Automatic annotation (TrEMBL):
PANTHER family: RIBOSOMAL-PROTEIN-SERINE ACETYLTRANSFERASE. PROSITE patterns: GNAT. SUPFAM superfamilies: Acyl-CoA N-acyltransferases (Nat). It comes from the Bacteria. This is GNAT family protein. Residues 18-181 form the N-acetyltransferase domain. It holds the Pfam family Acetyltransf_3. It comes from Nocardiopsis endophytica.
Amino acid sequence: MIDLSALREKPTLTGERVRLVPLSEEHVDDFYASAQDDEIRRLTGTHRRIGYDEAAEWCAGRSEAPDRLDLAITAHPEARYVGELALMEVDPDNETAAYRISLSAIEFTGQGLGREATRLLLEYAFDRVRLHRVWLEVYAFNMRAIAVYRSCGFAVEGRLRDALLWEGRRHDALIMGVLENDFRKTAGL
Ligand SMILES: CC(C)(COP(=O)(O)OP(=O)(O)OC[C@H]1O[C@@H](n2cnc3c(N)ncnc32)[C@H](O)[C@@H]1OP(=O)(O)O)[C@@H](O)C(=O)NCCC(=O)NCCS
């Protein structure tokens, strides 16, 4: 059985280069700026532009969300905000949940931060929440994200053809999933 208290109580997860902290009011400006970044919007297939007030309300409400986990990714040593991630759509009966991650600007990508953040979150998802399966959707053109997910134990499970229409072109999305044992093998635990 999964432990819902591990979703209610928002953790701080510390790695070598990143620290994941509960997403909150203090992150609104960075969260909002990231939502306006065109390349991040393309990679995440985000059509809608949120306003500042909506971003503020979202960040402020995250600590009260009982059934999901939204964490800001901060990088050592100055605890600079570099993105956010979420464990969501938790299904207690099947012990599954969905995952999403987005660094906040392209300048933060390619430095190993996303992989470390994903590993920290998966460790928490399997060890503390006691999930069995974590899944996600990623666009087929997003090779960097796919490489990171594979290295964390995710495997491609399916393809949603033409799921995204972006600036007149259609793109497939891939479903990827990682089971607890897959993750433990890649993490060497
Ligand atoms: C996806 C994301 C979380 C990955 O995190 P990251 O910190 O940039 O990635 P890392 O630096 O940890 O690792 C990148 C890996 O991808 C590989 N990679 C980069 N570009 C690649 C490409 N075009 N093809 C194949 N592999 C590629 C790198 O070689 C590296 O693997 P290696 O360390 O084994 O060499 C981050 O880039 C991000 O948030 N991007 C913007 C939004 C986004 O795409 N979100 C995901 C939506 S599903």
